[in-house]
């Protein structure tokens, strides 16, 4: 076992665990966005950064493995500043304008970006960049993809590949141009997509949603472990 300290608490950790895993086991909250347990941990959003003694810059808790004697601070002033900057940047091209705003989004109230922004104290972006105007892919009868709301966290790709084992969703391009190739356009029925909905469940924003979501709000339904209603494959995956 390894011994580490998080926020002054002495904790035992197993070899190979990340800071986030140890913190969660100990009930210490670290906000996350791109991380999806056992499905995807690419360390892209930088919302989970923490201070690690001896490191010049904050480190992402979701991808940083613990080492013996590590000293971690999860909520220092520097960490809070970095988290606000990360969320500010994500919001800057999240499609928030007069034609697209939270109230009209199917994920309003259940959006993790909205929740994290509130948690870290970001109410608007300080980077007024041009908004994306990509076409919404709407041909799939069950699923809808709005690339303008996508934060390229790739959780949907992890869910499609690692949970459903379908490998239908892929990433394309690199860096700030990273996009998700979701086959929900006119030729969606010529792909092997089973419309299982794992991708929509994994999406933290309103980018990938089940269409029936338009008929209810998150707090009006009860979540149960179930077999997918679309294809009956039996993924039995839910968040
Ligand atoms: Fe760790 Fe996104 S949750 S970098």
Question: What secondary-structure arrangement, pairings included, does this model have?
Answer:
Blueprint (H helix, E strand, L loop, with lengths): L1 E5 L2 E5 L5 H7 L23 E4 L6 E2 L10 E3 L3 H16 L19 H9 L22 E3 L9 H9 L6 E3 L6 E3 L16 H5 L5 E3 L29
Parallel strand pairs: 1-5
Antiparallel strand pairs: 1-2, 3-4, 3-5, 6-9, 7-8
Helix pairs in contact: 2-3
Bound molecules: FE2/S2 (inorganic) cluster.
Report on the structure:
The mean pLDDT is 87. A hairpin with a 2-residue loop joins strand 1 (2-6) and strand 2 (9-13). The longest helix has 16 residues, at 77-92. This protein folds into 2 domains: 2-75, Roll (Ubiquitin-like (UB roll)), CATH 3.10.20.740; 87-220, Alpha-Beta Plaits (2-Layer Sandwich). The chain has 5 helices and 9 strands; from the N terminus they run E-E-H-E-E-E-H-H-E-H-E-E-H-E. Helix 2 crosses helix 3. It is an alpha+beta fold. The strands form 3 sheets. It has a 5-stranded mixed beta sheet, sandwiched between helices. The protein is globular and about 55 Å long. The protein has helices spanning 19-25, 77-92, 112-120, 155-163, 198-202; strands at 2-6, 9-13, 49-52, 59-60, 71-73, 143-145, 170-172, 179-181, 208-210. It binds FE2/S2 (inorganic) cluster (FES). FE2/S2 (inorganic) cluster (FES) binds next to loops. It is found in: Membrane. Residues 78-121 form the 4Fe-4S His(Cys)3-ligated-type domain. Residues 1-78 form the 2Fe-2S ferredoxin-type domain. Belongs to the complex I 75 kDa subunit family. It comes from Senegalimassilia faecalis.
